[in-house]
Amino acid sequence: MALRNHSTITEFILLGLPADPKIQALLFVLFLGIYLLTMMGNLIMLLVIRTDSHLHTPMYFFLSHLSFIDLCFSSVIVPKMLKNLLSQKKTISVKGCLAQIFFVLTIGGTEDCILSVMAYDRYAAICHPLLYGQVMSKQRCVQLVRGSWSLGFLDTFINVLLAMKMDFCDTYIIPHYSCELPSIFLLSCSDVSTNFLVMLCSTIPHGLVTFLSIFFSYIHIIFTILSITSTSGRNKAFSTCSSHLTAVIFFYGSAFLRYFIPASGSPLELIFSVQYGVITPMLNPLIYSLKNKEVKAAVKRTLGKYLSCFQWQNKEKG
Fold first, then answer.
1. Which of the two ends of the chain, N or C, has the fewest CB atoms closer than 10 A to its terminal CB?
2. Buried-exposed string 31-66: b where 16+ CB fall within 10 A, e elsewhere
3. Is this model's pTM higher than 0.70 or not?
């Protein structure tokens, strides 16, 4: 019976957004604007870090990967949401749903690790400046990024592989605008106890270890900054990690509000969800460009260079 039901369920219905056509039109314009800003902001960040030699340091190497992650995360969620806002039939295939879960979990797990690595980078730079070049060598930076992607992929692969064996029965409505692993557990008519246990055993240690590494890195950073006698020295040391700390607060704060507050289907829950999946990827490039003098200067240099080239080409044509 389970096999027969599983074969008939080929798609899910996503009902996480308001059904009023007028509200849907407004949300479409809003989310399209946010998505375009996310793409533009992160692409500019990638371009600036790539082309400006002043930013060829470990911190900005990790920041470029964070921008790439935000591009991917937003592109996995928002286009499908925009399509459903314009469609009467707000569906996603079972395979498409599992694919979305795979990419969301992989990218989210990798971002978790990258933020932890960036905290370690700031710890090494502020607490051990004389050993910084040795500790954060180019080879070490590449290894840390590869390790972050590998951990994100491994956790996801195990969970999605088990999810592919689940059977789905009569219930096929997901009360959310995107697919998430806990949501499809509720739709399954097969035993998901193993799936749930594996999810807890993979995601909780992953999130806890990365969070604690960030926490203890900043504990050491704070004590080191407080030990600096000059006010200008303290401000300079703090300014090098304030952008990352702000990004960490947004990431973990929105994730906490999204996943640890009981589901109620209220507008507030939708706001928390949108903040985590849609708004946070847009904010990271703004945080680093507005709070970081080096990035602001590099953006001006890069845009000025391309603007000069464009003007020169126009003169040549004229």
1. C
2. beebbebbbebbebbbbbbeebeebebbbbbbbbbb
3. yes
